[in-house]
């Protein structure tokens, strides 16, 4: 942001007020027009029922306030040359943002058929809340947007995500007083403790108190002002109030407030950047109090509407049938004097556009809202430097996430000047054994630092706050503005962001269909501290269902990987970090885990996504008698141990071992881009042999993915079935029937003819299982792991 | 709570300080002992490696602070006869709460083998973080608990839920400074705007700032005190500070603070109850600052531990191998002087127990924490009074949720004196068309009221805040303390509480296995504004996956119902509201929907959970040619319309119509208590005929439920597949291939021999589909619905 000296209190000239008001009225007119009109958009003739849409749908209530903010952001951007991005938090601000981007021309540049003239205006109106048209909330289709309306709570964390490592950017974030009641929003106020005034941009929250939600007053609007101020100061902000319902007065106050806020931001940034001030800044927040549905009908059918919750959606509902409503609508629309706002062709007149900035400074045109255009490839180093050497499978142990930490450290180093890579997580980076990154970047922290603290860093790019919502929102905002990142979380608790990831996947799905949106970096999850390790936690920490949740969503976006060891984790992470427009979910353990594959083998295996591990099986050409399949680190270990037990005890049984890394490979080719053909599937799993599949999560997921396959009726899946508690790793697998002994018994039970022939082996397995459990009860630990696997040469 | 006059500032006698400190030291000793010892619990002999657990697991850091709170709550409960419940927010407070309930005797009363003597102490120690033992967080197994540790964020909303309609109860809620960073916790501070000082109890938040999370300082602990005070006052509280690391000083300060807080609570309640003061009270909050791992090792291996994040789990990690660590542990444990705290038999001495209250006043014994013992049956009136008359299926329309609203109104009325039923929702009660309840109870609101407001009520039992997390937390707390309720939500956004419902289901699953826990009322969801109606919303509002999420969890707890019309909704709701220990998910539309079943037929159908609608099919004895199955209101309508089209166009085809209300019926009997036998399933769906199943949500859910059935290979499911946008209801079903025309085409494609014979009918269907879509594009509305269904007589 250009350096700006502190200005005197803003005093708008009458002419400035007049043109700002013209812009605002034009936006209000267009917002109302979208809700009501499908013809006669400029009111060139008297309003008649046939001009009105057959279904009146949309949201007027929040629009006038958002229009005011947009108008005034235009003014200060133009006056100061500010590099700005706006986030529109109120859920149903669609009519307003669409109106403003049409006025500034970005809508027509993006969608040329909706031209900036009378004809385009009619299209703008008609498409709104119309079948196949645009929704009543901001969406990926909206120019200048990185934040979907609808589900509330994420505006402020998105704003901070956008501001990180964008030192010249001001992110204005309108927070509705409805949204302000949500948990994610409430938590994200404290994001200012993580915003670096030197290397990050600024976030200017604009808390818009129009007083009502759908049907209720809002909590914050009904706080006495001093109490609200205490709250905002407690959040670390300095409040600036703009209150009123007289447009001209509010214009003056809003202009003054925005100048004050931007001056203060510049001052705080200069202090930190030029004068080395390290005290956490007290950033400004604007509190804007204007009536809900401002300038709309004051009363309808004898009850107050403007300034009440009744203005939330469509203030006049019966316009086509009720002449009085039609008359009221016409009066309302004409109160903006469209004839003074638009010329003979329906184009906005010069006064209306006086405040609008030029080119990419327009809020609908900022490249930050189409982050893909700013995206640079992430420098992922060669994996060979981080790979663990594997001469023979299962002879060494590594903690996979710790190895990944080394890779992440290198990426963190290599991006230290570019500053376009961040690691986020809820206080778990070290717990998840990724702490090597701290040697390349500390943890962002603007709070007080004590001598005992470690790795806290004003300029750090590791973000840790105990709020999965805030982590997710930050990362989304960061990615959507063209940067890269990874979210590491305990597996069970990532469900906290189920609904957020839903919305992000929807965003990506829709964006991929918009040619003007450039691809952005994928949202990458590393889920660790997973269900199979409950040493001191327990049932509350067990949930492998995030994979199920994600796999319900658009297949073109979602990818799920379960690397079985350190090198496969490296390979999968490499792919995920380089990819675009996906949501990649990687599930990997942090506990010591056998190394199975060399780096080359891991690369080849991960590229296929699923394959036969012939060194672990006992096939001799021909079809196997049974397939032991596995996905996930713990199931893989149990399957390999089961294969060893079978080799030792039933040496003539032909066992195939198949490992699956990329879960979508199991799906039909028509249902997921990674899906295998039936030919390929049958080649791996056979058409008619028993398949014992040991899976990391809920077993029915495998059935849901593979139910169309020929061999599905022979598929027997073991997985997590809501059993377990605080216990040892081996006891966890026993309690869920995923252990090696159980798997061998499954083989014996399912291979035709084996039940009788191998009855004594089966009994040995049952005995070994019992012995192991008795040992655990007695000693509190597992028996030591086997060392001699007896692989094929 | 007994009326208490305001007291002078508390001054403890030296003797009181001494006995309080003895209790606290005993609790600290027991907390540390649980983490380390499996023998020699009373340190009667020198500590040797073999006394130490082989795996050191657990959490010391938060324990001393929680022990302090427990000790002092004991004191005030005993002194005042307060009826109190405690919620322990810090995730890993297990060692502390277990220690305290063992000291007060409730642990041994609940688990007699863990007796209050040396032998029991050894068992208490050994079971902790031991295979098959108890986790390091509070759990259902913990006496006095209604709040699981582990996943953080819900302590305060649980506390408010417990306090609603319990006017004599004080709920003390310890909030860790880690938890305080989460979104759900941050939102729930504003619960005080909904707490009625007259008819509800009090919540006393105790914000425990020990400064660190797992590996980071906490945000709130590093705020300057004046900023934290602003925040807490902004939340509507009056802060009382207790800070220190000198035990005796802190005891005096804590006693004073608790007396001050309880005096203030009594004063505020008296003002509201006796003097009619209606101003929202400024409730007290205690801010307790004590070191993390207080009284543990100050330094280990040369680095500071007490008062740092390093005290989070096990401060001395190498005790069995490292003699210095062993020595340090012994010094630490002996610093509490166990020989003065426990008698020769290992029983706590009188001084230790001096502060402990009697009987049910002990925190581990309060019946509020075992709500089932307080639960009264909910008075659900006869459904016949609310049923819609149905002479002939599909001839009248009703909004199902509006009919349910009438029933809820009656229940609300009938519980107006008992006050044990609440409706919660995120500002959607009216939007979800349940507004009839407002005639029986308004919406709880303690804020400022304006003349324009409607249905706000200081004593209301409808709770609306725009935070699904807070709604869920309130309801959970309310149910866990023995009351009833219903949560209504938009279907798509209920994913916001995915992780919370996970934890509640886990709680119920575990509780059901504990004979001492009495069953509580089920947690009932009404999901409406569902995926098939996107008139002005769009893709962001579409998600039917909560059903999938819930059906992953323990089958003994979860129930999912998709009633197809108003009367079936009544029947299902009646069952859900009367049931216990379940999570019931009901998905039902709020838009006008055809009435299919009379009340009697609906009751019979819902009792079966799935059944043949012979009036809609064209069977004539014998097996049908095809089965049209449906689950959900919109799919049912489309299937019935498809059946009508088939009857008209292919009159000799034998079509069976099956409707499924209770989704678990589709599961095998062995996997869910509601599961059908194969015999029953085959009787409904046949073994070998094509089944076209129109389902409300993701189609693969049906496969996942039915994959073991003989006829599974003939099952073809239509459902939601992530298509759709802002559009008409019919366009939504077309875009997802769930429409009547598509279903008829599916029948033609799948019934052997029909493809050729019915080619022209197939073409007619495709044409009708196109015509309908063209109409929608042109007019923005659907064609009018058919009226003549042509049912069987």
Automatic annotation (TrEMBL), chains A, B:
Q: What's the Enzyme Commission number for this chain?
A: 4.1.2.-
Q: Which Gene3D superfamilies match?
A: 3.40.50.920, 3.40.50.970
Cofactor(s) the record lists:
thiamine diphosphate
> What's in the keyword line of the UniProt record?
Lyase, Thiamine pyrophosphate
Which SUPFAM superfamilies does the record cross-reference, listed alphabetically? Thiamin diphosphate-binding fold (THDP-binding)
Domain Xylulose 5-phosphate/Fructose 6-phosphate phosphoketolase N-terminal positions: 12-373
Q: Where is the Xylulose 5-phosphate/Fructose 6-phosphate phosphoketolase C-terminal domain?
A: 590-791
Key word Protease present in the record? no
The source's superkingdom equals: Bacteria
InterPro entries per the record?
Answer: Phosphoketolase (IPR023962), THDP-binding (IPR029061), Transketo_C/PFOR_II (IPR009014), Xul5P/Fru6P_PKetolase (IPR005593), Xul5P/Fru6P_PKetolase_C (IPR018969), Xul5P/Fru6P_PKetolase_CS (IPR019790), Xul5P/Fru6P_PKetolase_N (IPR018970), Xul5P/Fru6P_PKetolase_ThDP_BS (IPR019789)
Mind telling me which Pfam families this protein's record contains? XFP (PF03894), XFP_C (PF09363), XFP_N (PF09364)
Protein family according to the UniProt entry: Belongs to the XFP family.
Name of the molecule in the record: Probable phosphoketolase
This protein's species is Streptomyces gilvifuscus
């Amino acid at each position: 942001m250009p350096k700006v000296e502190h200005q005197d209190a803003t005093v708008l000239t009458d002419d400035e007020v007049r043109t700002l008001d013209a812009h605002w009225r034009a936006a209000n007119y267009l917002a109302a027009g979208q809700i009501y009109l499908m013809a006669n958009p400029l009111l060139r003739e008297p309003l008649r029922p046939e001009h009105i849409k057959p279904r009146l749908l949309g949201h007027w209530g929040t629009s006038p306030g958002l229009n005011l903010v947009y108008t005034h952001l235009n003014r200060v951007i133009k006056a100061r040359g500010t590099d700005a991005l706006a986030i529109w938090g109120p859920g149903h601000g669609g009519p307003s943002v669409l109106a403003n981007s049409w006025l500034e021309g970005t809508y027509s540049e993006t969608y040329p058929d909706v031209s900036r003239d009378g004809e385009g205006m009619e299209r703008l109106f008609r498409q709104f809340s119309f079948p196949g048209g645009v929704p009543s909330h901001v969406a990926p289709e909206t120019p200048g947007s990185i934040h979907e309306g609808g589900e509330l709570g994420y505006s402020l964390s998105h704003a901070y995500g956008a501001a990180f490592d964008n030192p010249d950017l001001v992110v204005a974030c309108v927070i509705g007083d409805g949204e302000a009641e949500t948990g994610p929003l409430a938590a994200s106020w404290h994001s200012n403790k993580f915003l670096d005034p030197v290397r990050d941009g600024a976030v200017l929250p604009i808390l818009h108190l129009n007083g009502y939600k759908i049907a209720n007053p809002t909590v914050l609007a009904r706080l006495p002002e001093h109490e609200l101020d205490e709250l905002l100061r407690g959040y670390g902000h300095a409040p600036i109030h703009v209150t009123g319902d007289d447009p001209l007065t509010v214009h003056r106050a809003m202009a003054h407030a925005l100048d004050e806020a931007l001056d203060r931001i510049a001052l705080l940034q200069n202090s930190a950047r030029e004068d080395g001030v390290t005290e956490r800044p007290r950033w400004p927040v604007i509190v804007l109090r204007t009536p809900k549905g401002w300038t709309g009908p004051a009363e309808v059918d004898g009850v107050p509407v403007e300034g009440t919750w009744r203005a939330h959606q469509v203030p006049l509902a019966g316009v086509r049938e009720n002449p009085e409503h039609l008359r009221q609508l016409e009066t309302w629309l004409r109160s903006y004097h469209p004839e003074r706002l638009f010329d003979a062709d329906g184009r906005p007149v010069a006064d209306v556009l006086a405040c609008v900035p030029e080119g990419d400074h327009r809020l609908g045109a900022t490249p930050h809202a189409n982050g893909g255009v700013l995206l640079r490839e992430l420098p992922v180093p060669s994996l060979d430097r981080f790979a663990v050497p594997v001469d023979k499978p299962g002879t060494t142990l590594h903690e996979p996430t710790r190895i990944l930490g080394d890779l992440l450290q290198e990426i963190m180093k290599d991006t230290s000047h570019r500053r376009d890579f961040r690691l986020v997580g809820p206080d778990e980076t070290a717990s998840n054994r990724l702490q090597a990154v701290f040697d390349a970047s500390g943890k962002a922290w603007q709070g007080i630092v004590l001598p005992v603290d470690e790795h806290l860093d004003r300029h750090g790019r590791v973000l840790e706050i105990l709020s999965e919502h805030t982590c997710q929102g930050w990362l989304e905002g960061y990615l959507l503005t063209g940067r890269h990142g990874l979210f590491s979380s305990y597996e069970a608790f990532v469900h906290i962001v189920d609904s957020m990831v839903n919305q992000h996947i929807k965003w990506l799905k829709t964006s991929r269909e918009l040619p003007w949106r450039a691809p952005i970096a994928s949202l990458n999850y590393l889920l660790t501290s997973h269900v199979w390790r409950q040493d001191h936690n327990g049932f509350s920490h067990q949930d492998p269902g995030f994979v199920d949740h994600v796999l319900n969503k658009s297949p073109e976006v979602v990818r799920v990987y379960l690397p079985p060891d350190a090198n496969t984790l490296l390979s999968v992470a490499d792919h995920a970090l380089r990819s675009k427009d996906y949501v990649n979910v990687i599930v990997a353990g942090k506990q010591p885990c056998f190394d199975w594959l060399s780096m080359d083998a891991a690369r080849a295996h991960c590229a296929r996504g699923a394959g036969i591990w012939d060194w672990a099986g006992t096939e001799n050409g021909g079809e196997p008698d049974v397939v032991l399949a596995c996905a996930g680190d713990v199931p893989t270990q149990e399957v390999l141990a089961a294969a060893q037990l079978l080799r030792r005890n039933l040496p003539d049984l032909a066992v195939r071992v198949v490992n699956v890394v990329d879960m979508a490979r199991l799906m039909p080719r028509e249902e997921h881009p990674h899906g295998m053909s039936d030919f390929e599937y049958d080649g791996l799993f056979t058409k008619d042999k028993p398949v014992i599949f040991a899976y990391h999560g809920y077993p029915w997921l495998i059935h849901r993915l593979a139910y169309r396959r020929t061999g599905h009726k022979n598929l027997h899946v073991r997985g997590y079935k809501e059993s377990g508690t605080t216990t040892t790793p081996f006891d966890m697998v026993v309690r869920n029937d995923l252990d090696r002994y159980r798997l061998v018994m499954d083989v014996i039970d399912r291979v035709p003819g084996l039940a009788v022939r191998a009855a004594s082996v089966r009994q040995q397995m049952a005995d070994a299982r019992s012995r192991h459990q008795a040992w655990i009860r007695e000693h509190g630990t597992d028996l030591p792991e086997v060392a001699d696997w007896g692989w094929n040469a």
